[in-house]
Amino acid sequence: MPVAIITGASKGLGRALAEALAARGWDLVLDARNPEVLKETAAALEAYGTRVTALPGDVTDSGHRAGLVAQARRLGGVDLLVSNASALGAEPLVRLEELPLEGLRRALEVNVVAALGLVREALPLLRAAPAGAVVTVSSDAAAEAYETWGGYGASKAALDQLAAVLGAEEPGLRVWAVDPGDMATDLYAAAVPDDDDPRPDPASVVPALLRLLDERPASGRYGAPALLEAR
């Protein structure tokens, strides 16, 4: 069966995608920082009858990234790598004049450097897969100027560029940067805790990601709302 590595997989979009893939028979290697929540997620997904390996840790740790790829190799390889783990840089978000530089460094390390490091670790297995693919979870803050979203948006813009170049350099793979749109996630709640407006459940975005896997369009940046509307 195909194997996917998903970071930030204990909750939100990462968990929703993992569940959809498990329902399709995919084997999974899951990452998150909270061991208990990740363990609960893995146990729930094992009910689908697939093999699920949960490896808690921080994606900025090169040893942890190597461990994720090693676990995937044990399951048979890497067919899909999803960089979903994200850091905001400040919680709640603040204007650039107040953004701690250490917070910006953390956002860049998690959202950009770690994502590239994991791709580099997994690249031989991705190239060997029958249909290797990389998904990087972007944001509309990467393309639009929203007050207080500068640090996070800058990191996601950098991730978009890395994904674009990787797609050009690896024509045998599919590399998709995906803007999921608004979602009700813990990340958003931490970013803007005073915003109580209803937002879509992350599970509503998953069909857009599955469409990419099913139809394998050209590498590039895609918005989940447009993918869903075109179905």
From TrEMBL:
Stored Gene3D superfamilies: NAD(P)-binding Rossmann-like Domain
Keywords, sorted A to Z: Oxidoreductase
Catalytic class of the enzyme: oxidoreductase
Oxidoreductase in keyword set: yes
Pfam assignment, any one: adh_short
EC number: 1.-.-.-
Molecular function, one GO term: oxidoreductase activity
Listed PANTHER family: DEHYDROGENASE/REDUCTASE SDR FAMILY MEMBER 7B (PTHR44196), DEHYDROGENASE_REDUCTASE SDR FAMILY MEMBER 7B (PTHR44196:SF1)
Recorded family membership: Belongs to the short-chain dehydrogenases/reductases (SDR) family.
Name recorded for this polypeptide: SDR family NAD(P)-dependent oxidoreductase
Annotated source species: Streptomyces salinarius
Lineage summary: Bacteria, Bacillati, Actinomycetota, Actinomycetes, Kitasatosporales
